[in-house]
């Protein structure tokens, strides 16, 4: 099995290296060979899918590699590795038919990101985890800026700053954990719970992995990166890379260890609820489908963060909450990946419009949690896992009763996404039946693997009956309310008196992409303009004073006259006598006595 894991990491790296080597020189034969490798690069992820399906969960170590590499595939990592195989595989198949000017470079970096991303999910010690986590994060920069547009470069700059910030926090937390004598990932939660530096470690972990998970207010890179990156890259950014932050929180926070953590659990739950609300409000103010999906991802990551916060508040529910977080992560990854891929299918595929709209609609319904979808299962098991955990500071309000409102926001966002997509022109210039078919299966059949996953945990999570009246009613009202709100907004927007209303006809200029970053940029720009104006005023004042001094009587003449008078014998003698008299008086009064 260790050999198979080695191959699963080596094959994508070799394919990426082959693409790079074929890109170095010119020539028609070399170009044809490179095109062939790029076209079938998706096959490089297959070995990982096979080994992840067959792995026995035992620890594998390679002592000479990366200061001691150790990997283990557990019930948390296995579903996420398989998710990575599916989404990266489809993304690699989509790239050759995308509008990217350099498909070879994009596929090469996707293969590198895939290798590091899988490493994050299986890393079993701190050194291995940190190195692959950092590699994945910095390689992600290349796929964000791939198109080299102005917006892509700006998004890449913000992404890089936030990545360095997050990596620094994770490194600080890991150094504190290692100082406790712990290096195995499986031992970290208990060590953190017992550490004297527990609060500092937890704070650093939340910051570091919160950046990667797009948790508000650390989300600022996400709504900039998604619209800037090519659609296949956006699919893996949202569907898989965000989950690296989630698994970091699940692996290293003291979930189910020791006493409850009301401070940190309450903070996570609060940020999750605020983030879900704000993401929905801001998302509907945009008209770019990829920006809308980006804000949807922020809200969905808030949902998962709420589960993690609840596990900190009530350690007894930690196993069920962790399992529910994994199920929800997989459901979100499959659905959101399908929606991002659908943008390229809509733009370029020669498939009939109905063949694009139907899978896209099923995926959207799944994200909203409509019955008989993957989201329906994920939201139900998440709600059931929470038990009676109450909102921080409001013991009479159950968190499980608040989470359905996330589905209301998701439904409104997806209605806005549908409107934005309907206004896009289909070019139908490219497409490949096999990749389009793979996307359609992903969108239509996501419920099956999510159902299998939820029932595969030990003990299995409580799953809803497909046609049970109770779960169907409980899960339907948020979706129906969201549809009603969307229809009401559409009806208002059509009225003559609201034809020019910016809130009802948003164009993305009320709250720009990047929200907080834009506000900070504007504040910094205003401050700089104020400093420049102030420096101009000070400069003018200085020049006026210099001019007045230059035009007035010279101070040097007066100083020279004073020096001349002091230099005369009479004045000098008088001053010396006065100084001597003062000294005698001081001594006579005892000032010099001991």
TrEMBL record:
It is a multi-pass membrane protein. The keyword Membrane applies. The chain crosses the membrane at residues 41-59, 80-99, 119-144, 156-178, 200-222, 234-252, 264-285, 292-313, 319-341, 353-377, 389-415, 436-455, 475-493, 566-589. Its main location: membrane. InterPro entries: ComplexI-like_HydComp (IPR052175), NADH_UbQ_OxRdtase (IPR003918), ND/Mrp_TM (IPR001750). Residues 123-380 form the NADH:quinone oxidoreductase/Mrp antiporter transmembrane domain. It is found in: Cell membrane; Membrane. Keywords: Cell membrane, Membrane, Oxidoreductase, Transmembrane, Transmembrane helix. This is Complex I subunit 5 family protein. It comes from Citricoccus muralis.
